[in-house]
Design a protein that fits this description.
The protein has six helices and seven strands; from the N terminus they run βαβαββαββαβαα. The chain is α/β, with parallel strands linked by helices. Strands 1, 2, 3, 4, 5, 6 and 7 form a seven-stranded mixed sheet that branches. The protein is elongated. Its main location: cytoplasm.
Length: 195
């Protein structure tokens, strides 16, 4: 008789991550957001931040659910060495758009999967994007839409901002918030997702 698979817990409050998991037929048994300090450390680069926060989230939730398989992710938008968090207000969202206008940037999602036996698997997935040069009217319209709220970097690629993307190299789902190919690999490696 096969061993029953452990409950899968998603350590995230993001509705986008739940939607993305559903696309590959994965429905977590529980959703338990991690309450951690997400402040970047001094001189911490975007990729390192994404990886560190994913591990911290997974560890926090695994401590509460030791018999579960815990999946955590954190998505960071970076322009060079600078991290663009979720904008605090419309003015900051406008500043972010002005910074991204006509430039390339990177979106990194750190993934961490902790098994009931404590074994960890992790990945950092990077997607490179280039935005068109945005007009003042485009930026004002986007900020007025409110889509920047709660979004790293101040935009959501799965909505209106996709029209700004002139170049994308890597995983589109990564930019939404969860790289599906790598997530499926981690779940298969843990024996949770088959085939």
């Amino acid at each position: 008789m096969p061993t029953p698979r452990p409950p899968l817990v998603l350590a995230s409050a993001s509705p986008r991550r739940l939607e993305l998991l559903a696309r590959i037929g994965v429905v977590p048994d529980r959703v338990l957001p991690a309450d951690i300090d997400e402040t970047p450390r001094k001189a911490e680069l975007p990729r390192a931040l994404a990886g560190r926060l994913a591990v911290a989230k997974a560890e926090a939730v695994a401590a509460q659910c030791p018999d579960c398989l815990v999946l955590a992710a954190d998505t960071v938008v970076g322009v060079g060495r600078r991290v663009l968090n979720k904008p605090a207000d419309a003015a900051e969202a406008a500043k972010f758009l002005a910074l991204l206008s006509g430039r390339r940037h990177r979106v990194t999602t750190g993934l961490c999967l902790i098994r009931p036996d404590g074994k960890r698997s992790r990945r950092e997935v990077v997607t490179i994007l280039g935005f068109q040069r945005l007009t003042a009217a485009q930026m004002e319209d986007y900020v007025a839409s409110g889509e920047w709220q709660g979004a790293a970097g101040g935009y959501q690629i799965q909505k209106r901002a996709e029209a700004f993307v002139r170049f994308l190299s890597g995983s589109h789902s990564n930019v939404v918030g969860l790289p599906l190919f790598e997530t499926a690999q981690l779940l298969r490696g843990a024996g949770w997702l088959t085939p």
